[in-house]
Amino acid sequence: MKRKVLLIYTGGTIGMEKDYETGSLRAFNFENIFEKIPEMKLLECEVSVHPFKIPLDSSDMGPEEWKIIANYISKNYEKFDGFLILHGTDTMSYTASALSFMLKGLRKPVILTGSQLPIGDLRTDAKENLLTSLYYTSLYENDEAVLQEVALYFEYKLLRGNRSLKYSAEFFDAYQSPNYPILGQSGVHLNIEKEQLFRADKDEKFSADLNISQDVLFWRIFPGMQVSHFHVLPQMKVLILQVFGSGTIFNTEKTKKTLQQLRENGTEIVVVSQCISGGVTIGKYNNSNVFTEVGAISGTDITAESAITKAMHLLDNPNYSGTFSENFERNLRGEISE
């Protein structure tokens, strides 16, 4: 039985080719992808292509585009066995994280991939990323999808989408999942680490929750920063602070008063680490105790991309019971370690 895969092309380097007259990259008609990669016809799956009418650079991908993708997957959920999203690399981890929260009760694979070089380049990484992603997207055992979550595939590695981050603009091996093991690896055999896979609750039905609020601000703390600048910021509902190491910040009375005032004004404060690996442990050092005093939320080992999109999804979302802090601290889609 051939599995049916819906390929959604949003834009990015993977769908570009060089204009040899100008030397610039331009998007090609992605409906002709089978001519660019004839090997796709040899796969044991049927691929249907749905390109964005206007391909977008990944820097232009945001909440509205996340909603479009999630809604399109929802409308076609019963028609296809898996979904592959081709995306520019710069913000792919944001989209993967956002979709992981928006697509509830997922029982089918949703994989994002892209490339560092265009398909037409002689040294391109696009073909391998695309072909292997299609293999993973159509991987079923006993009539059940092996992968039932939002994942990201790049340079032989399959990663949990909301655990991924782009760490290199130069190398083909551009993505890491520093706080969670890889889900699978492509070599001579197509491996998958089943014990690492996420499964939704058995009684949770699939649905697309399109709630995304943009009243979220991300701020990186740096030595010498004037915390008083927070006073001139417009009112925001969630402030994500990326702090030092395992969760420290300046140990001053001004810091405490500023954060306390934000909380009194109704702003939720989420604390995440600037370190790629590891996470926040409030109380480990004295300079983190201020977060307990003001009632801030620990992001533990969540990535910045996942923290931002999780906050955007949860904020003012009527589909969740409990407070924002209670829901943020919950492990919803495998984005934080238990």
Structure commentary:
This protein has 338 residues and is α/β, with parallel strands linked by helices. The chain has two domains: 3-208, L-asparaginase, N-terminal domain (Rossmann fold), CATH 3.40.50; 216-329, Rossmann fold (3-Layer(aba) Sandwich). The protein is 22% helix and 22% strand. It is built from eight helices and 20 strands. The strands form six sheets. Strands 4-1-5-7-10-11-14-15 form an eight-stranded mixed β-sheet, with helices on both faces. Strands 17-18-19-20 form a four-stranded parallel β-sheet, with helices on both faces.
Walk me through the topology.
Blueprint: E1 3-9, E2 16-18, E3 25-27, H1 33-36, E4 45-51, H2 63-75, E5 82-86, H3 92-102, E6 103-104, E7 110-113, H4 126-137, E8 140-141, E9 144-145, E10 150-154, E11 157-160, E12 165-166, E13 175-176, E14 184-186, E15 190-192, E16 207-208, E17 216-220, E18 238-243, H5 253-264, E19 268-273, H6 289-294, E20 297-298, H7 304-314, H8 324-329
Parallel strand pairs: 1-4, 1-5, 5-7, 7-10, 17-18, 18-19, 19-20
Antiparallel strand pairs: 2-3, 6-16, 8-9, 10-11, 11-14, 12-13, 14-15
Helix pairs in contact: 2-3, 3-7
